[in-house]
Amino acid sequence: GSYTYFASDIAYHKTKFDRGFRNMVDVWGADHGGYIKRVQAAIKAVTGGKASLDVKIVQLVRLLRAGEPVKMSKRAGDFVTLREVVDEVGSDAVRFMMLFRKNDAVLDFDMARVKEQSKDNPVFYVQYGHARGHSIFRNAREAVPLPEGAAARTAYLREAKIERLTEAEELSLIRQIALYPRIVEAAALAHEPHRIAFYLYDLASEFHALWTKGRDLPHLRFIIQNDAEITNARLALVQGVVSVLASGLAVLGVDAPDEMR
């Protein structure tokens, strides 16, 4: 019963302590919330106060199809496994959506929504931001001698005159890019990976918004014919967006595709 669970949990964490772990983190279901203080106190006792345990409580995931709950029953043996969800929507969608919420918030996982190619599908919107950046690079080679390889492209854009970036939208995007290291650090210290997912969505949204403005206002386009200097400066900005999106997605275990069809 509960005593057996409590004892086995203390033994497990004592083993981790003996292997050198001091600041331990566990993820528990909401139904185990009542054990937290007792387990934390016991761990301090058996380790002489040299170890600590931070417990993150996670809520339930409600599975939906086109907004309607998927009916499941443990008693009747009628349920959908995580493997079936991954097979249907892909591991990228599952990983990102599981992290696109605070751990203590209930998640409504809509199978139809995560397949949509729209702003309402966070994982698509972020991945599309990365793919859009690479699309801009491909199109830019008609205007400037932009290398194809990532390392060569980065070296080339390092010489860009970024002081040419003076539009309010450009400066706002630069500030958003600059937040990334602090976001990762804060997420790690607080044990809250959802902060990275939220940030990536905000960055992708701002990038898409600037691209859309360029369609209506030619002077905001990333590629300006007959002006290699401003084009290279804006390509350097795109490189910053692409690099951060790729890094953040890698942290979450999600692919960053160069093309999306």
Structure commentary:
The chain has 261 residues and is mostly helical. The chain has 10 helices and 5 strands, in the order H-E-H-E-E-E-H-H-E-H-H-H-H-H-H. The protein has a 3-stranded mixed β-sheet with strand order 4-3-5, with no helix packed on it. The chain has a two-stranded parallel sheet with strand order 1-2. A hairpin with a 2-residue loop joins strand 3 and strand 4 (68-69). The chain is globular, with a radius of gyration of 23 Å.
Short description:
With 261 residues, the protein is mainly alpha-helical.
Short descriptors:
two-stranded parallel sheet, 54% helix, 3-stranded mixed sheet, 261 residues, mainly alpha
Chain-averaged pLDDT: 90
Could you tell me how far the N terminus lies from the C terminus, measured between alpha carbons in angstroms? Answer: 52 Å
Structural class: mainly alpha
Shape: globular
Approximate strand percentage: 5-15%
Taking the sheet with the most strands, its summary is: 3 strands, mixed
The radius of gyration is: 23 Å
Total helical elements? 10
Number of DSSP-assigned strands = 5
- Strand order, main sheet: write it out: 4-3-5
SSE arrangement, N to C: HEHEEEHHEHHHHHH
The share of residues in helices is 40-55%
Query: Unreliable runs, pLDDT <50, ≥5 residues?
Result: none
Topology at a glance:
Layout: H1 2-18, E1 23-29, H2 36-46, E2 52-58, E3 61-65, E4 68-69, H3 82-89, H4 91-99, E5 107-110, H5 122-140, H6 150-157, H7 168-178, H8 180-190, H9 194-216, H10 228-252
Parallel strand pairs: 1-2, 3-5
Antiparallel strand pairs: 3-4
